[in-house]
Amino acid sequence: MSHRLYSAEEAYTLIASDTDTASEGEEEDPTFLVSTSSSSSSSCSDDEPPRRRRRPRRTPRAASPDLHPSDPISTPAPHTSEPIWTPVPPNFEPQIPDFVGQSGIQFDPSGFTEIDFFKLFFSDELISLMVVQTNLYAQQFLAQHPVSSFFSGSHSWTPVDAAEMTTFWGLLLHMGLVKKPRIRQYWSVDILYNTPIHRMAMTRHRFEAILKFLHYNDNARCPPRDDPSYDRLYKIRPVIDHLAAKFSEVYIPGKYISIDESLVSFKGRVQFRQYLPSKRASTRATVACGTVRKNQRGLPRSPVAEVLRRGVFKAHCSDNLVLVKYKDKRDVLILTTIHGPGTTPVPVRGTTAVALKPDCILDYNRYMGGVDLSDQVLKPYSALRKTNIWYKKLAVHMVQTAMYNAFVLYRCAGHPGKYLQFQEAVVKALIFCGGEGGGPSTSAAATGGPRIVPGQHFPGEVPHTGKKGKSQKRCRVCYKRGFRKDTCFQCDTCPDKPGLCVKECFKTYHTSMEY
Predict the structure, then answer these.
(1) Domain containing 31: what range?
(2) Are 503 and 470 in contact (CB under 8 A)?
(3) What gap in Å lies between CA 468 and CA 491, rounded to an integer?
(4) Which of 216, 219, 190, 187 lies closest to 203, judged by CA?
(5) Do 67 and 25 fall within a single domain?
(6) Long-range contacts of 176-185 (CB under 8 A, 24+ apart)
(7) Measuring CA to CA, how many Å separate 369 from each of 23, 360, 372, 392?
(8) For the whole prediction, is pTM greater than 0.70?
């Protein structure tokens, strides 16, 4: 059996002839077989299994010189024009727009503390959003699972309020400062894992309940996946919009900006793509300078493949875009719209000689790495944990990014200190003050207050009641040990102001779990 391949003209002719000669009782076959045999094949009987039709062997180019046999019969796509690259002329001057932005802090930071800078981003508005959506999601979940054993009996769900949500986030951010393998170990009384601050601020079951129901948008209003307005980031869109608006509102960057992406590791199923067709284009007269791979589409082949000696560079341009290839220890390719072919003499390390280095290379080395620096600062204090719920992990990362941006504002306002010290002050304010700046949170007061916190408790005299003599209270430590003893002193910092003997009991009460 011999086979042959048809050209495009022959294929169209054969399709037309088959259509014309089809009988009225037959159904036309919508498929078209390109290969045909020179002799008719015998039909298979019921007893004999049908033989598998051989696939025709691929032959060289068919008779038609314009169409390859394997090419589809369709209109070819229009050819995309490549940029034209020419050597940079000696008088080349880049077209750089004037920088007119009023960079810096856009508010008066006088009297601001660490928590005030953080509250610029982690505002009461964002906390209220979390409270409303968390309570709504809990209500929806419990309506669908009315017999859930996790929220039955004494552990029944109660709506969260703003103070409790603020304390929750304080504990969550504290987990980035104190690392433990599992969340439940933060409430452990084992000597290896004992951190009393979590037990004093909130019960473990309550923390896990809020973490389970933590939500940022209403699932019932999410458009279906086939809807044109469907947003893959719908579950976390309010947080993104809120922080993005606050970031651009309180601070305007300077002339030189490092632009890069920051990645969050996640091994679950998420169909996110780095290509975003709705991404905003740079239409605010932005010029740029950055490295590029040598196999990037659109680059000229000859200059990219040219072998250069160390210290030598070549520059080509396409309109205002300049490509510079520089040979250092390896080849470096730079695309820039802000530089020309200018060079600057720089000393060669270990010698007294100088070498000419392109200005674009020097500026790139000077201003690069801004995002890498922020990632380097954030990584040791990351509160991210392994989870299958991507939006909760991303939300924690965004709040910690807001923490770092608040620290940048803190330093721009002239305050000294390290990032670790800044975080410690913010976490203490969130946990102990409930985010309001005036006393412990509701959760802390309900559990007797955070009594085991070094450097936070001070003795004072029991207020006078108007009677003769000094007013006294029963010492709480002595009473628990089985004997009564009155004292004229109390702890003014604890919410319930317990009476304590100032010599020994005051220290025991604030340092021992079991007194």
Answers:
(1) 1-40+52-75
(2) no
(3) 23
(4) 187
(5) yes
(6) 176/381, 176/382, 176/383, 176/400, 176/423, 177/381, 177/420, 177/423, 177/424, 177/427, 183/207, 183/208, 183/211, 183/385
(7) 73, 15, 5, 27
(8) no
Residue with tokens 């304080």: 170
Alpha-carbon distance of 414 to 410, in angstroms, equals 7
Please state, in angstroms and rounded to a whole number, the distance separating the CA atoms of residues 496 and 510. Answer: 14
What gap in Å lies between CA 185 and CA 198, rounded to an integer? 10
Residue in 470, 504, 479, 474 with CA at minimum distance from that of residue 490: 474
Q: What is the 3-state secondary structure (H, E, C) of 427-452?
A: HHHHHHHCCCCCCCCHHHHHCCCCCC
Are 416 and 489 members of one domain? no
Q: What does each of the 515 residues of the chain score in pLDDT, given as a tens digit?
A: 444 444 544 443 433 444 333 333 333 333 333 333 333 333 343 444 445 555 555 544 444 344 343 444 444 445 456 778 888 887 888 888 888 878 888 889 999 999 999 999 999 999 999 999 999 999 998 888 877 666 665 567 899 999 999 999 999 999 999 999 999 999 988 888 888 889 888 889 999 999 999 999 999 999 998 888 888 889 999 999 999 999 989 988 888 777 766 666 655 565 554 443 444 444 477 788 888 888 888 888 888 888 888 888 888 888 888 899 998 888 889 888 888 888 899 888 888 888 888 988 888 888 876 666 777 777 888 887 777 788 888 899 899 999 999 999 999 999 999 999 999 999 999 998 643 433 344 344 334 445 555 556 788 888 887 776 788 889 988 988 888 888 988 888 777 788 999 888 888 887 776 66
Enter the tokens of residue 490: 């109390």
Are 174 and 71 contained in the same domain? no
Q: Do residues 465 and 379 share a domain?
A: no
284 within some domain: no
Count of the separate structural domains present in the chain: 3
Q: Check whether residue 22 and residue 124 sit in a common domain.
A: no
497: left (phi over 0), alpha (psi -120 to 50) or beta: left
Cβ atoms of 125 and 273 closer than 8 Å: no
- CA atoms in the 13 A half-sphere facing the CB of 360: 27
Residues 217 and 135 in one domain: yes
Residue 264 in domain: no
